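Entry type: protein chain
Record version: 2
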Amino acid sequence: MIVLCVILEAGLAIVGINTKSNIRFVEDKGTTFVPHAYYRHTKEGFSEGYFNAHGFRDYERTYQKPEETFRILILGDSYTEALQVSLEKTFPALLEKKLNDTIPSPKFEVLNLGQSGFGTADAYMRYLNFGVQYSPDLVILAFLTGNDFRNNSKFLNEESLAFYFVFDENKELALDRSLFDEYRNNMTLPKRLFQSLKRHSYLASLLSERLFLWEQQLQKYSISDHAKNNMTKATGTLQDFSDLNIYFPKLRPHWQEAFDITAGVILKFRDSVRQHGSDFLLVTLSNPEQVHGEIQQDLVQRYDVTFDFEQPDTFLEKFSQRNEIMFLGLMPALKKYYFKTGKHLHGFGSTLGRGHWNENGHKVAAETIFKFLHKQSLVPLSAK
């Protein structure tokens, strides 16, 4: 067995199917990447490198803000993390370069605190637990309508390990960190040793990943069966847990609750940012079906339902106007770019047009955000 494990470990290291585990659990603060851990992403697009000393996919930063520096903090999910492209091609890095190339002073830093799978509650808690320490001048919440509403619902997110906010008996939002507490309480000594082993072994990391996916699948089946018994049938053939529900003109109860929770968490986020003396900007990203018309047509033909592909962005824009939140929707600019150039902004290779942003998507996003910051005087701009 030992010889077999050694052979498998060597084979995995050579073939590069996976990397060693690079996720860590920080007591009372959730998850981050392992500081200085190596990553190699090949599932969609490609990138490789090392996470920084604070456990984020970003350049090395100091908690103390350098003098004569304007700091922008961006929080979001996998679109912000952007493992599909090299670090310098991500929209936070491109925005930082654009600002510094255009403006002689002050120096600009655009910090990337995004992580795959994050919802708004996770981004908010990351800001409180980590982001505040960077003393940002501007905080940007990069919101992906494609799955962030679902991620904010403990039910619709199928109780994945994350922070959540739920409505209490007084219909007030309350933080629910029970899944993290449960994870911590179940972390026995053997499990802690295995967690440590995963950070040093390709084989242990691969086995852990397969086991996690298996458990997730079992949990998904369990929750889906419960949903079938307690929820009305989906319209047409669209499943209740499908992210496409965000385009339904009439939201189902659990999706309406997800929208309501999201609105409440954004308000909490805004208030906390302002209390710390920073500006807050809500930016909605884009989903493939919103930008690429051929995907819209495919969805309309596949499902016997009426979709409003602009509905989630319209909801957040109107919500922002009512609550005096600065708002920028990127979808129109990306959609215009696609119609004008024919170049896809989502997807790679055989999946072109679907999936995460490619380099085109990140480039257009960075340029659009830069123009908005300039127009709204959110950064101290002066021409060279």
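Comment: The radius of gyration is 21 Å.
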